[in-house]
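#dry-run=false #mode=assembly
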Amino acid sequence: MSQSAHADPVPNRIHARAVPRPGRWIAAAVVAVLAAMAIHALATNPAFGWDTVGLYLRDVTVLRGVGWTLVLTVGSMIIGIALAVILAIMRRSDNPVLRSVAWFYIWLFRGTPIWTQLVFWGLISVLYPTLSIGIPFGPEFVTFETQAVITAFWAALLGLGLNEAAYLAEIVRAGLASVDDGQEEAARALGMKESAILRRIVIPQAMRVIVPPLGNETISMLKTTSLVSAVPFTLDLTFATNAIGNRIFEPIPLLIVSAFWYLLITSILMVGQHYLERYYGRGGGGTPRGKGPRKPRTGRQAAIAAAGTAKDDPFLEVTP
Amino acid sequence: MTATAAATPMVDVRQAHKMFGDLHVLRGVDLTVQPGEVCVVLGPSGSGKSTLLRCLNELEVLTGGSVHLDGELLGYREDSAGRLHRLHPTAIAKQRSRIGMVFQRFHLFPHMTALENVMEAQVQVLKRSKGAARVKAVELLERVGLADRMDHYPAQLSGGQQQRVAIARALAMDPEIMLFDEPTSALDPELVGEVLAVMKDLAAGGMTMVVVTHEIGFAREVADHVVFMDEGVVVEEGAPAAVLDAPREERTKDFLSHVL
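#status=ok
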């Protein structure tokens, strides 16, 4: 270092010894040994049946289960998001009936176990054997057999979606609340109507706060779908692997098969979430001026971040 | 001022009272602004001047009294028996669109470029075509000296530039009157001048303006009418020379001795 000192822009660069940290080395050694023991225990115990795992990893029933699990995840998130936006807007409403109904919905669906709710949706045809469209408390025009309309699949989808909506509603509400009041005020002063203010001004800025926890919720939903046997819906990944495991009297390898698939999908979702968060998250003070083609949406999100009109912490006021 | 005395005032505030809970912020304010007049409202913080301004476009609803805009009662319809009926929010939004408002902290829409900020309400409220709104927005941004900043987001603009975009955004609605709520208070000192220059230009163009500010120099140079408020009432008003250089009231003298 001292030979090249003439090239150093800092003539009096500090070369000090670091604080000795023997604890670090000891901790690293302990954890490394424990990890090696865990891997060894996994690999050498024949009860895990790694050959069976390999055999069933790409089994048709298992792959079909993966497909159904994905359908349930995506479908219930779509139902959840749509309903959550409605609920969050209802909670902001001046109308006390809308406000309290939304509050009650969230209270009920967050306050009871998802398992209970799924069993309930499975039994809906016992409670209400027929469904009909007509005038409330008046004549009915069309009547359906509940069992024919709400099959096990739809019961599972509804159960997951309606439950998720209660959690997402709180996230959406926090997102809407994170937008500076001045934004609404400025739009109002321009003569914009409330619906246009929400759609054009508030929601686009709230997305920044809403999207990152939405990724978490999707990952969580992927695994919650394993509870649909409560309905009972019998085609999802967990049910499929359990059924095979019980049939061949080797439950452990099949648990590992399902865990593998859940982990794989979660990992893919995590990559997606990483990019979404980078896209919606704080990205520094905006793109350089007038250089190259403008990336409008990246700049747009960075601009929202830099304006400080939305709170930075996406988990603020969200405690599911 | 004397020539317009017979015309319908652009703004006519009568005995305005505003309560926030138990806090009596406006205690019977009368204010008349003639068309084409620049009215500067001065006063210590907490005097109610910003609240008065916000009541002029119904961002705050008066507890008592009335505001007429060009002869039209704001916020209410009066029936033949003299009873007041609150207007539908759509009707109130329509009244607001005739009144331009510029805020202390700009409140530009951060997810839109300068151009989109100026276009937005033209399209949403006035139902102009995007093309027409763009032409108008470009013209206004050029007028406030931001021809080269149209595609920038607010975060990429200085405070003074942001405030000029905000002025252009308000002007795009072709307002009958412009309200300014301490438009230079959030700016670095070296940026104040560019915003005041745009406002002077507007005043010279005959725009009716109500300006809440601490810029005494602007009041002296541009105002036709200076109002001094304290503790929710108008203490003194008149021509700038009279109020600023020869105040009659003790409170006005006291305030001016602190700001000048």
